Amino acid sequence: MPTSVPAKFIAMIDRAHPSWHAVLRKGLDAVASAHPAYLVDLDDAAFLPTEQRLFAAFAQPLDAVRYVLVGEGPYPRAESATGFCFMDGAVGSLWSEKGLSKQVNRATSLRNFMKMLLVADGQLSLAQTNGEAMEAVSAKARADAPHVVQTLPELQEKMIEQGFLLLNASLVFRPDVPPVRDARAWLPFLQTVLSALADHAEAAGQTPAMLVLWGKIAVQLDALPATARFPRKVAEHPYNLSFIANQSMQEFFGPMYLLEK
Fold first, then answer.
1. Within 10 Å of residue 144's Cβ, how many Cβ atoms?
2. What is the model's pTM?
3. Which of 17, 25, 167, 261 is the most exposed place for a label (fewest CB within 10 A)?
4. Residues 127-144 pLDDT 10s
């Protein structure tokens, strides 16, 4: 029998869509079984995200998921870590008079993701993704507010509407623990989540969701048996400038027009 899961984590499941409740509980049991001390220790530790948002990414129904986007871990700031990968809670407006907003530029991964989307859309040239080029893009976006996404919550909503499950390889961030170590502990949980998605697709006669892995920590999911059941795309982590020029990501995200309302 698995080690008991602390009540605090079980209570957090209520924040998820009901279709996920049994899966998330099974995933916690899997973590407790594989690493008996992990959740017990985490129960006594300070970690991000706060406000019981550990399973916030599971707010949409299981059968609505078309893509599983996996990043590294929560942003290392309380106001930024929301439980959704790459969705920085400190970011409101995406744009400013000088280009992207100051908050977006501070969230390096989000900044590079935005620029990749703009390159994919033909609004930016890879030869110039800063300075006057960004000012021009921003001016156009702000002038066409009824048709262009203006805030990060709007972008997040657009991605969820497209069917994105915005996960992190590690569901928590702790300043005194390397993200890769926490990510290893959550692998049994992610195996449970991916198996549930694959089983659901198989039962419905559908192709499983696309698995999109960003960065070396996310690619650790390749070790999971469930990963082999999914089509997948892999890229460097968006905090790398090279992500802006990643042609595979441009081709994948371009047709989604995520910055259009």
1. 12
2. 0.95
3. 261
4. 999 999 999 999 999 999
